[in-house]
Structure formats: structure tokens, C-alpha cells
Amino acid sequence: MQDHAQAAVIDHGTSTPVISAKSLDLTFQTNDGPVHALSGIDLDIGKGEFVSFIGPSGCGKTTFLRCVAALETPTGGSLTVNGMSPDESRKARAYGYVFQAAGLYPWRTIEKNIALPLEIMGYSKAEQAERIVRVLDLVELSNFGKKYPWQLSGGMQQRASIARALAFDADILLMDEPFGALDEIVRDHLNEQLLALWARTDKTIGFVTHSIPEAVYLSTKIVVMSPRPGRITDIIDSPLPKERPLDIRDTPEFLAVAHRVREGLRAGHAYDD
Amino acid sequence: MRTLFPILSVLAVLIAIWYAAVAPMNIRGALDVAERAGAEVVPPDARARFDTSVWVLMANNPEHIAAGYSLDRPRLPTPQQVGQELWKTTGEMALKGRPMSKRSLIYHGWITLQSTLWGFVLGTALGMAGAIAIVYSRVVDMSLMPWAIISQTVPIVALAPMIIVLSSQVGIEGRGVPKAIISAYLCYFPVLVGMVKGLRSPGTAQLDLLKTYSASGLQAFLKLRLPASMPYLFTSLKIGIAAALVGTIVGELPTGAISGLGARILIGDQFGTPLAIWAALAAAAILAGLLVTLLDLLQRITLRRMGMQA
Fold first, then answer.
1. Which controlled-vocabulary keywords does the entry list (chain B) (predicted)?
2. CA dist A155 to A168, A180, A273, Å?
């Protein structure tokens, strides 16, 4: 059943975007007056793309991701996920969300943490077990299923939280600065792993980051954003090949993309504070 | 062993202070007894002694200080005397096969324990129900929470007789129920406050995560809020059961009760038998210690099974 549904999506995928935003606005009413978190966002994300959102704090990159996940409600424009409203697509289990903090339950083992969404969604015990084994293998944590979160390093905890987001076969993976709290070396390693995972699973990934090298290394498309109001200043389709060893970061192509991202960030930033 | 040593050190210091305090506290009594026995004391007149400070009395009658440690009705009994009285009214009676005699503190402790446990169960249930209502309803939060705090500012000693009178008025016989109510009145508050804090302990990200799974409110409660509140709950329960015991004893004090540790304290006071008061006091302290230790053990076992402690 599920495979048929997936195949259908792939057939359509080339033509219709998975995530489509048209002149999307989101204004928060605060005590200090309205805050324009998102303003006139136009963006199409195709099936299997790896899209990074980069920009300074307050540029709305996280807010956009939360809109896609139906955690925030836009105040204007249109936003569709798999051709449905964000709310409907959430109910259809369209995406898995990975937060900056791994947020594993300390009273559950890694296995049980991964089982959490499966329990809520009503999968049978047998299916839960089968899926846990599969996603633990995907994030290379097969031997750690019986451990508690505190027994794992920060990087491993974040991998476990990615496994949890993968467990229910959502086609879209939304990641909000998942490696932001980790050190450079661990982050490099996880970036490599994430690319491998993306290649194996053919997911569509939306990835929020502060790091230019991370954005360029991972993405097929880089969305550069700027604050007040939160808007898109540049969309860069990466010329880099899908196969990316870590040392690709020293090639002229890589540096050229990084340079363009930096220019975009500089252009969007008023330096008025 | 690591935790036992500091506890025993503090206990040793307390007992040392206690022994030191017995001398000034009992010097008057010791001099009265010595005077009646015909010994020479300074000053010889009881009224004059009344106006003299205990320190001067001790300085003038050093040979009578020791007698203060073995009076029949001391102002302040020594730890040893309290221990002996406690043994006489518990262990010794049990050895004689009459542990439930009306003179036995085991009997009175059992009466008090029953009310305490009923009050604890009632108070915990009320506290948890209140906390759930407060966490899930803003209206309840705004309306119930201030009253919960105000309820704890009313002195329980003033409230206790009223609760007893009112409950007998509505036809409740015996003192068990009103005592349990008084006990629950003190016990529910720490449980309520702790559970509110515990149920609210999951952060926004945790709740957002469940939202991305389209989890129902009940699922969020059972899978996230309730387990996350467990450490808070046990801390509250330990405070709660101690409060419940205090509530029960207060409920036994001003109400003409004849059984229970509180009644023993009051009767000891009325009949001028300080040893009985102190023995009942010690029994109450031991009971509280046992109850709290039991809950602490339960906490360790539960949290360890939940994998929350190393």
C-alpha cells in the first residue's frame, strides 16, 4: 500500500513541487507592535531536494519551517505541502521534524524514543520493532537501542532524534538547526552521514542553519534570508555534484557558492544595530 | 554509608546540645527535690530561687547539677530517659504480648498512622486532580490557585476543631474521618504545587514535537507530561506525607481525642508527665522518618526503573 502511494508521489514529483509558498506572510502581534516574521515568501521545493535556509537571527528561517509543519499559521499568502494545506499534510504524516535539541525522553531507551511517534500513530508492536531496527541502522546506532539518552554523546542523541523523525516514513524531513549545538568535528561527521542518508532515502529535506559551509556542503538549493521583515534575498541552485566528499569544500566551485551566500547575507543585512 | 555518616554526625551534635541543655533546664527541679530531701541548697528559699537565674543557681549548687539528669518529672528529660520511656511503651509492651494496649505507643502510633495514610491518599488525590485541572485549564489556574495558597495561610489549629464539629454535625461518627480531612488539608498543597510544576516541566519543543505527530491531548498527558512529572511528584509526596502526619497530630490535639500520638502529647501535658510527651514526640518523629524513607525508597526504585538515574 505505502509503496504504491510513494510511487505515485514520485511520478508527480517532477512536475509539482512538494512544498510551495506564494507571497507568504506571517505577522506576530506583540506588545511592542507587529513583528513581520515572514514577508512575501515565494518558494518552490521539488521532490528529493535538499534545501537549506540560512540567515541571521530573526530572518524567519525557523518560522518558515514551522509554517510548513503547521506549528505556526501564516497570516497571508498560500502554502501547500504535497498539494495539501500544512495541517492536512501533517495529519497525512507528510513530514518528520528534527529540533535543535534532540529532545529525547530521558525515561525511554533509544528504541522506545523512536517508538514514540509509532505508538502515537498506532503501529503494531511487530511493525514498531521492524521500523526501529531499520532506522537505527540508517543512523548507525544499531548497538545503542537499549541505551538511555544520557548514556549517549550529544551527536549520537541528535542522530537518534533523526531516526525518530524517519521512523514513520514521512517523505519530508524538516530540520531546525539540528547540529547547531554540536562541535565542528562532530558536525562534519553528521553532515557526511546526513548526505549519505539523504542519498539512500530520497527524502526532501528542509534544513535551517547558521553555518555557510554547512549550507553549501549539504544543499541542492540554498535560500538566503534577511530579517525585519523576514524575507528571501537570494535562492542559489548549487552546481555541486550529488556525490560530495568532505574535501569538496576546498574546490573553487564550493568557494564560489559560499561567496555568493556570503554576499547575499551581507546585502540583506542593514548593519543598523 | 556515605549518606549515613553526615546524618549521624548531625545527630551526635544534636544529642550533645541536648545533654548540655538538661543541666540549666532541670537545675530548679533538682534543687526542689534536694531541698525536700533535706539537703542544703543556695538560696534555701524556693521563692528566692524562683527569682535567681539558672546560671547563678548552677554556679552556687554545683553538687546538685547531676541530680537534674535523673529527675522523675524533668523539665527537659535526657535522651536516655526519653529512650527508656519509649522502650517501656513500645518494645517492652510488645515483648509482654500487649502491643495494642491503650498504654502502648504502638497502639497510639497505629491510630495516628491510619489517619495519616487516609489523609495522605485523599490529599494526594486532590492535589493531583487539582494540578491536572490547573495545567489544562486557564480558568481553573486563575481561580483555584490563589485559593489553594490562601488555604495554607489559615492556621490548621484553628480549623481543626471546626472540621471535627462540622463532621459530627453531618453525622460522621468517630474521629477517623475528620482527622483524615485535616491531614489531607495540609497534604494536598505540596502535591498540588509540585505536580503543577512537574506537569508543566516539558518545554515548548517537546510539546511541538508531539504536535507534529498529531498526538491527542490524552497521549501528550500519558506519554510526556505524566512521566516528566514523576521526580517532582515524589519530592512532593515526601513533603506531603510529613505534612499529613502533622495534620493528624494537630487533629488529635485540641479535640478531646483519647487515642493517637497527638492525644498522648496533650494528656501528658495535662497530667504533668513530661516523659510521656517526649516519648510520644519521639514516636511521631520516628514514624515520620520511616514514612519519608519509605517514599524515598519508592522514588529511587521507580526512577531507576524509568532509567532516569545512573
1. Cell membrane, Membrane, Transmembrane, Transmembrane helix, Transport
2. 22, 11, 34
